[in-house]
Amino acid sequence: MELNAREVKDILSFYQEEKLRLNAKLKHVDAMLRKLQGNNVDSESGVLLTRTGTKAKKRGPKSVWGKFILEQLAKAQRPMTYKELMDIAMETHGYDKSKFSNVRASILNSAFRLRAIAGKVTTIGELGKKEKFLVSTTWLNQKGQLPKAHIKWLKETMNFTPERVDMSSIPVAKYEEDLVG
Fold it and tell me: C-alpha angle with apex 88: 118 to 76, nearest 5 degrees?
């Protein structure tokens, strides 16, 4: 079968329109099935959906402190204490000592959100010790262990032997913007 350029263009146009039409129809069918079954989570990504079937977005401003915590962990490439993060924040932003309680509260709140809602960080501890270290969940393997380099650094520098993290306790992101970045 030999086609000239115009025929190829017409056929290509027809199939692109068909694809758009069928995708729209499939999206409608998915939305109706989801409504009828009462599902509000996307089957592929596990992201929260609105009533119309679109991906839900977080409301309100994004936390600058959450971004700060993730940046500092990525920059240091090692576990960090809350105190370390607070000291870096005070120094980086040029705050005086009177602002320490505000910075402390902001970092603790943001770390909680990153840990309990977004699942981007978690804390590691040692049996019998109060001190905890923040670590990125991307550093942990399936068994909940840190890489050997991190364990070695904690042991040699901080005299700290971390316990294994229960990976089932780490929450799954509810919003699409939590999956990236």
Answer: 65
> Which letter does DSSP use for residue 133 in this model?
E
Count the neighbouring beta carbons within 10 Å of the beta carbon of residue 104: 16
CB 135 within 8 A of CB 150: yes
| β-sheet bridge partners, residue 49 | 55
Separation CA 144–CA 167 (nearest Å)? 6
Residues 6+ apart with CB under 8 A from 179: 45, 47, 173
Check if the beta carbon of residue 123 is closer than 8 Å to that of residue 79: no
pTM attached to this predicted model = 0.62
149 pLDDT exceeds 80? yes
Closest CA to 122 of 71, 180, 171, 62: 171
Contacts of 99 (CB under 8 A, 6+ apart): 90
Can you give the pLDDT at residue 16?
Answer: 92
Going from N- to C-terminal start, the domains of the chain cover 64-179
Percentage of the chain surpassing pLDDT 70? 79
Please list the residues that pair with 124 across neighbouring strands: 133
